[in-house]
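Running this now, will post back.
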Amino acid sequence: MTEHQAREAGRSVRIGKFPFSANGKAIALGETGGFVKVVFDDATGELIGAHMVGEEVTEMIQGYTVATELETTEAELMHTIFPHPTQSEAMHEAVLSAYGRALHF
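Update: finished.
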């Protein structure tokens, strides 16, 4: 779901965003245009939407696809290890951002 779709459906949501301009791997590659955005149901912590724009995001989106299919919560994603230095760290930072816990932003 998009943030707009979730709100129109009457869901209370938490939104997390993280720009590639703050991601070490993206900076090293010179590919800082783009971001990761996540949408969580505020009541349940369910990941209900994820959006990515930028280089190599097609190699990353499956992580959120699996998380959604397994009904992973925000708490589980916050405790998942995302290797460093990788662009996928932006996925973790977006999750943390939704809960005011981003490390590098």
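The chain is about 35% helix and 20% strand. More later if anyone needs it.
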